[in-house]
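Handout, page 2. Input:
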Amino acid sequence: MKTKFASKAIALALTGAGLAIGGYWVGSQDKGNTESATAANSDVAGDKVDPKTGRKVLYWHDPMVPGQKFDKPGKSPFMDMQLVPVYADEAGGAGGVTVNPTIQQNLGIRFATVRREETRDAFELVGTTQFDESVAEVVQSRVTGYIERLHARAPMQRIKRGDPVATLFVPDWIAPQEEYLALKRSGNDALASAARDRMRALSIPDSLVAQVERTGKAQNKLTLTSPITGVITELAVRDGAMVSPGMTVAKVAALNKVWLLAEIPEQQANSVHPGMQVEATIAGNAGRKHSGKVREILPSVSTTTRTIQARLELDNRDGSLIPGMLMRVQVGAAKAVSRLLVPTEAVITSGKRSVVLIAGENNSMQPVEVTTGRDIGDDTEILSGLQEGQMVVASGQFLIDSEAKLKSVWPKFAGNEQIEGQASSQSTSAAARIYRGVGKVEKISPESLTLSHKPIPELKWPSMTMDFGKPHSNAFADAKVGQDVEFSFKEGSDGSYMLENVKPAAGGKK
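Output:
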């Protein structure tokens, strides 16, 4: 009886187990069919979904070669590692990156608005002051005589109008004056008048003749005075020196106006014209401004600096400017022009192109290539690439630039996506840099060596196994599988890594 009851219990247990297994199998098939249908629908819709996270994937790539994109996950053909997905919700839109608001604040990222303003063409030049030669005067002798007293003692001495420069002794004047006085005492007015005309022909001033008539004595001294107020720039005689008619005794330059000789870059020469208004400041006193105008453009070009000299005229009635002072000059056009402006610090210039980062939705930032014009103060003119009202990144853009290059944002500007992506964080010179590592030979082929290497800090590589190209099929013939080696390599233009040298590691396995 007990045996029969036990047989029935075992049969019922086996039946229950079979039903459970069958139900699990049916459920698994339904779940598999559902996942297959979902995947099929995703494929039909053109979407790629990461089964682990459920997030939409744009593509997969190898972080070491970010320019190469793959449609499916798998092992990287370049490194011994799995491809990494790039998700749609972190790509920052088409060709952009996303920066978390907290990170933006921590990095001090600032934004600026693209604006349109009426501005005048302005140039900042540098020049030195000079005497205004157009108002300089000379003090000359019209007679033959001797310097009895020199009142001006040295060049660069300040002098006022009417101040004496030199007193001359003129012996040739004595005889005509005595003759004139004798004829006047005789009462012969006709001969006296002729003698007077003779004295005038000998350059005896009328004031001196009047003094002769008043005193009745011949005058043999002549005092030369300064015709203007200014500075004596030349003093050609000393006490006791002989002078002759037409000889320059001194030269006096006025200081109510000064010249400023400024250097204009050759490419901007056509933008500066005579008559343009200028404002100049002294290098040591930027708060004091001196107004003036462009007097003329000198017809010569310096072969060493490739600049053209402009002669500016500055007002100096207060006498604060002296020759030889270094001044900064702001030259402005009379007519204002409407221009699109951004802060100069917002423009990233690489030498081949200029790029600005535009702030978009959801904290995304997208690079845009722009054409720049002239710099106006702290702003730069934008000729194309931006529109008024757009927000651009004004600071911290170089950090964003590095992130954008790692995500292969820049390739669209060069027309060659793979090459630009591989050169994202390295310049051309950096691409040829030699790197060194230590590892073990895992495999040898005519084209490459497979090495299991230790971390390479210079490239921020962890320990991994990867292929390194050989310069030719017979290179490194002494290398053996399992051998510990020291090696050096460099990055090629195609993103591959080429071995330069391979030798046994010190203390390693031979």
